[in-house]
Each structure stands twice: as structure tokens, then as C-alpha cells.
């Protein structure tokens, strides 16, 4: 499992980004990581602190993605071209380290 963390960090640090999201002409998915600061079940949003220290409120495409998540957990996630969370994976360590 420890080999997945360096691979995720390589993706985070090695991929071209613009405004924190993957850039490109086609419909790309951005793979990012951070720490959950808040979960809004009613609005279907997560507030995530990115490794850079900035916080972002991100909409979630499906309520089931929020199940089992807790404030303070470290996660990797994928965004669609509309900057909506489409996949969330819990990480055993902080993605910034």
C-alpha cells in the first residue's frame, strides 16, 4: 500500500495544472489530494485543504461519495471537467508529506 502514496504524489506534483485543476482541450479528470475540513451533506459539498494550504469547497456528484468520510481525513480525489468530485479515496497519510 505504501507504493501508492508516492505514485499519487507524483501525479499531483508532475501533472500540468492551471488554477489547481488539470488543463487540456479534451474532457480530462484531475487527480488531487488534501485533507477534509468540512462535509455538507445537504449541499453535497466537501471543503478540502490542499497541500498548498488553500481551501476549496467542491461539489460532489453523488451523496454516496460522502459516506464513511470524516473531518480530518486525508484523501485523494478526482474532479471532472466541471470541477465536481467524482471519486474520493481515503489515504493513510497526509498527501502533502
From TrEMBL:
It comes from the Bacteria. Keywords: Signal. Residues 1-22 form the signal peptide. This is Copper-binding protein.
Amino acid at each position: 500500500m505504501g507504493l501508492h502514496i508516492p505514485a499519487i504524489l507524483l501525479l499531483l506534483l508532475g501533472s500540468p495544472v492551471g488554477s489547481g485543476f488539470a488543463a487540456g482541450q479534451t474532457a480530462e479528470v484531475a487527480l488531487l489530494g488534501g485533507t477534509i475540513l468540512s462535509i455538507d451533506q445537504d449541499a453535497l459539498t466537501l471543503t478540502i485543504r490542499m497541500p498548498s494550504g488553500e481551501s476549496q469547497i467542491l461539489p460532489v456528484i453523488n451523496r454516496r461519495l460522502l459516506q464513511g468520510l470524516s473531518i480530518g481525513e486525508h484523501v485523494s480525489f478526482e474532479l471532472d471537467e466541471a470541477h465536481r468530485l467524482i471519486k474520493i479515496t481515503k489515504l493513510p497519510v497526509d498527501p502533502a508529506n
